[in-house]
Amino acid sequence: MSERNETVLITGAADGIGFGTARFYAEKGFQVIGVDKDREKGKEALESLPGGRGAFYYCDVSDPDSTAELFQQLNEDSRSFSILINNAGESTFTSMFELSVDDWDRVLNTNLRSVFLFSKLAAALWKKNGTKGRIVNMASTRALMSEPDSEAYAASKGGITALTHAMASSLSPWSIRVNCISPGWIHTGREELTEADHLQHLSNRVGRTMDVAKACFYLTDPENDFVNGENLVVDGGMTRKMIYEE
Fold first, then answer.
1. Is 58 part of the annotated catalytic residue set?
2. Which residues pair with 177 in a beta bridge?
3. Nearest 5°: phi and psi at 177?
4. pLDDT over threshold 80, residue 244
5. Closest listed residue to residue 22, CA positions, set 212, 196, 191
6. Is the pTM here over 0.85, yes or no?
7. pLDDT tens profile 35-70
8. What does the pLDDT read at residue 161?
9. CA 179 – CA 36 distance, rounded (Å)
10. Model confidence pLDDT, tens digit, residues 9-24
């Protein structure tokens, strides 16, 4: 996809995959609306994007009222976008015997319900003005495999993969495409990596935020309109490699 006069909205854009994706799109000439509940880090991150192409907006994506207020503010600021990347998420790993209903709801509301709300509000705008919008939802390889104490997170990410193809079907009449990405182990600089970590992957390395950003870019290219309702696994082959305990 060559440089285009388009704007992308990315949730959870203050750091990690969200920030890496925001920077990638900005470097390609896109305007970026970055959304996060961390005001200080979010503002700093979006102001650092090349070309002054970033704009930060606060939103707690787990809160429907905060989401509605965000879209109202975007309307008042005359900011539109044609690409939505639902990246914001929370991971809580707690024994299912200790996981409270409030904790369960918080994870599901942050990771899954937010995808529905943002997509619904964005698609309503696109449907009204005839925009062939593109949505990318951030799932996880944990939608496909698990380790102990990940029930809430796995449920939210599995829900995202199902919600993706459901919305792709519902929004097809307006040529709005919906896909999702399931990243595997993506290094965001928070931990030290070992050679053993890299060798768990067929690609012989742990993933980088740029790997996910490039996948988003592929899925949002208007010329790739034959890719729809898909879950693109970006994990260096980790889920395809059989690993035996020694």
1. no
2. 134
3. -95, 145
4. no
5. 212
6. yes
7. 999 999 999 999 999 999 999 999 999 999 999 999
8. 98
9. 22
10. 999 999 999 999 999 9
- For 140-166, b/e burial (b = at least 16 CB within 10 A) is bbbbbeeeebbbbbbbbbbbbbebbbe
Which residues is 55 bridged to in the sheet? 33
Of 110, 38, 31, the C-alpha closest to 74 is: 31
Structure tokens at 45: 């991150």
Report percent pLDDT > 70 for the chain: 98
Q: Catalytic: which of 25, 57, 58, 153?
A: 153
Tell me the DSSP string of the chain.
----S-EEEEES-SSHHHHHHHHHHHHTT-EEEEEES-HHHHHHHHHTSGGG-EEEEE--TT-HHHHHHHHHHHHHTT---SEEEE---------TTT--HHHHHHHHIIIIIHHHHHHHHHHHHHHHHT---EEEEE--GGGT---TT-HHHHHHHHHHHHHHHHHHHHHGGGT-EEEEEEE-SEE-SSS---HHHHTTSTTSS-EEHHHHHHHHHHHH-TT-TT--S-EEEESTTGGGS-----
Structural domains in the chain plus CATH codes: 7-240 (3.40.50.720)
Q: Would you say 103 and 152 are in contact if contact means Cβ atoms under 8 Å apart?
A: yes
